[in-house]
Amino acid sequence: MLETINASSSATAALLRRHDRDRYLLAMFVSEAARPAVRALYAFNYEIARVRETVSEPMLGQIRLQWWREGLETAFGAGAVRRHDVLTPLAAAIRHHGLSREHFDRLVDARERDLAPDPPPTLAALEAYAEESSAPLQLLVLEILGAAGAEANRAARDGAIAYALTGLLRAAPFLARSPRHHVSTLLLDQRELVADRASSYIAAARALRRRVPRAARPALLPTTLAAADLERLHSAGGKLRPDPWRAWRLAAAAWLGRY
Q1: φ, ψ for residue 106 (rounded to 5)?
Q2: What is the domain class of 118-244 according to CATH?
Q3: Which of the ends of the chain has fewer CB neighbours closer than 10 A, N or C?
Q4: Which residues of the chain does CATH 1.10.600.10 include?
């Protein structure tokens, strides 16, 4: 299984480098042994996250997500997995690390809700969407690192929600021009409230820092990016240019054992 994961690592790394630069960078700060599995996981997340933007109608999106559901069903079984640049190493990672099926189901379910015509109607609903589409991913990273635990899981959840909310704020100008994107008008009309909620999740994640084992902290680095982006959004009035210091921010946090 390790051979399968490692053999596909360059392909998943290339996919992330082209399409999900943040998670390409985040994967660099886990151990070398864990990196291929984390890359496969992040590549899977990219594939399901992009479904809504690549289909012309919800039914087509549901068909694509059903393909992934069937692939996961096989991965959690004992049968042979179909050859695919992402599914094949993902299945190997699932089997090698004993990853939790529940987290995968939550991620796919969240992306199915992306296909609904109505956006989240309240801030609480937007936060729930941020959690379901992001937190299970970081909980799976913790499992790959062998560092899951009560405090680490709580910190990963809070940091992931902050990262998702901040990502939506960063993308708000683009999302406003996309009639098919599952995004609430809260991003435009209540930007400050969304930013405040993201900030509170960052504070909650960081309040647990002394109780989170060092082995878990690479899974919590999205918190670092969320905090930096909130500060930059505030300074730039809501419109951001690319961050040339992104890798350095992560490197500094990782070296100091922070997030």
Answers
A1: -65, -40
A2: mainly alpha
A3: N
A4: 118-244
